[in-house]
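Shipment paperwork, digital attachment
Item: protein structure file
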Amino acid sequence: MFPDPHLQRPVRRVLIIFTFLVALGWIPTKGEEPAPFRCPRATMAYDPANPSQSIGSFHEGTELRLAPWPADPGLRLAVCRDDGGREVRALCRATDLGLDSALPRKTASSSPGSPSESTEADGRVQSLEEVNVGLFGDGIMHKITFEADGKVKSNSVFAQAPGRLINCDGMHRDSADNLYVADSAQNAIQVIHPDGTVATLVENGDVADKRTGQLDQPCEALVRGKDIIVSNMDWPFPKFKNTKYQLPATISVIRLAK
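Attachment content:
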């Protein structure tokens, strides 16, 4: 093809690089433009040069053009235009876009009504084969197990404590597999032990002064070393201990015994 053999190697390199860029979607090919797709929810966006680095998010309803990401089948290359007409390229997780994935989804939620009617769910992954999911409305913690192909194998009640554990909101697991659960209704952080028993770590009544650091309708509990970092939602519902909105918004810190 090339009379000069010294040109063959660099030309081949250019063709290989060009083919790779086309596969990544960086160079569009005529007649192969992907169909438009609208984000079903706010979706995190990641840097194609460093997929672990977040660079922002796409708003719900944003029109994207999606392409496979050869390096990871769980990712999609998303392309759109910003308000100034400039092209934006980012990576999104397939599951965040509501697309099929081999891995189980960590959480599921729907728009809640009243607390007693809510089907909003919070979940914590125990492993790739097991997920704990608690419904906000009934305070029951479930254990869902999966087959190797990602299909549900079983769904059973893992823990419940009527009168003690009222809501299962945000949760986090420590290194000993204890699950710390924000119980919004009770103004409490509940602990679910590996055997499914439930104990109250901290609980208080309605807060008169939020600057005391007391719980004020906790919605998330994060284990960090020997501390439990708690985000307080302060969103009154009927029959909850929290009865009124009040400033300032606070984060509580629970220090565990050394």
